[in-house]
Specification:
By secondary structure, the chain is of the alpha/beta class. The chain is 39% helix and 12% strand. It has a four-stranded parallel sheet. Helix 1 links the parallel strand 1 and strand 2. The structure holds zinc ion (2 copies). One zinc ion binds next to loops. The site of one zinc ion has 6 residues, from loops.
Length: 259
């Protein structure tokens, strides 16, 4: 089955195209199943994020995707998801929304620790203590059983200067927990395209994936589509699968859904 569960929408301010254009591109590219997992809103008390929909837009997002699900049901299977950080204090709110909005799945995209306001972007970490906080959060998130997979588990290598012994340690711990909790780790194609474009090695980071190749966690591939065109980059999609195969890693056939 050809799938991608990592699709964004214009609502996050850094993606382009209508929801329907993503669906049409996915059909054109021959996908059997796709999922929208736009950046989740959070019930911030006094803060407006520049990288995610506002809380009061969630319903519109969910309704929009559910309508497309119905409209295109004979051509492609569409799932409704969200990409969420692991913010323990908002988990009760999130669980409530999953029920209320009939969300099919969520993926862990841990861009910040604890909360967004006042915290460091996890693609910008420079100090070992940040890495350990990141690791602890990811591990705790996997243990909740809520997340269908971990998006860009190696996001820390976007900013961290070198893959040192701390990176090695947290990578091992994250991979170990992925195995234990049967949570796939995502080989992120948006990161791969960035690395190819600017020649700067970010995620997917080779050392992380070499370790994964030895340890054999469940893995998946995510396009992390922020434009409909991303679905049509066949070469990039293939290179992700080829890389994982070369590492001896088998991409999971499906991910866990709530319904
Ligand atoms: Zn994004
Ligand atoms: Zn994403």
């Amino acid at each position: 089955m050809k799938y991608n569960y990592h699709t964004h929408t214009f609502r996050c301010f850094h993606a382009k195209g209508t929801d329907e254009e993503f669906v049409k591109a996915a059909i054109e590219a021959g996908f059997d199943e796709i999922g929208f997992a736009d950046h989740s809103p959070w019930p911030f008390s006094d803060y407006v994020s520049g990288m995610r929909m506002h809380e009061n837009e969630l319903e519109d997002y969910c309704t929009g995707i559910k309508n497309l699900k119905e409209k295109y049901k004979d051509k492609i299977s569409i799932k409704l998801g969200l990409e969420c950080e692991y913010f323990p204090k908002y988990i009760p709110w999130l669980k409530n929304q999953i029920k209320k909005q009939e969300i099919d799945y969520i993926i862990l995209g841990h861009h910040f620790s604890k909360d967004e306001p006042g915290s460091l972007y996890n693609g910008n970490m420079k100090a070992p203590e940040h890495l350990y906080t990141f690791r602890d959060d990811i591990i705790e998130a996997m243990q909740t059983g809520l997340f269908s997979y971990v998006a860009h588990p190696d996001i820390f290598m976007r900013g961290y200067p070198v893959f040192d012994e701390h990176c090695e340690k947290i990578s091992r711990d994250i991979i170990e927990k992925a195995i234990e909790t049967d949570t796939p780790l995502e080989y992120n194609l948006l990161g791969l395209s960035h690395s190819k474009a600017d020649g700067k090695q970010g995620y997917p980071y080779p050392d992380f994936w070499l370790m994964a190749g030895e340890m054999k966690p469940p893995v998946t591939v995510g396009i992390d589509a922020h434009t409909p065109d991303a679905y049509l980059d066949y070469e990039l999609f293939k290179s992700g699968y080829d890389k994982l195969e070369e590492l001896g890693l088998k991409v999971v056939d499906k991910i866990k859904m709530f319904r």
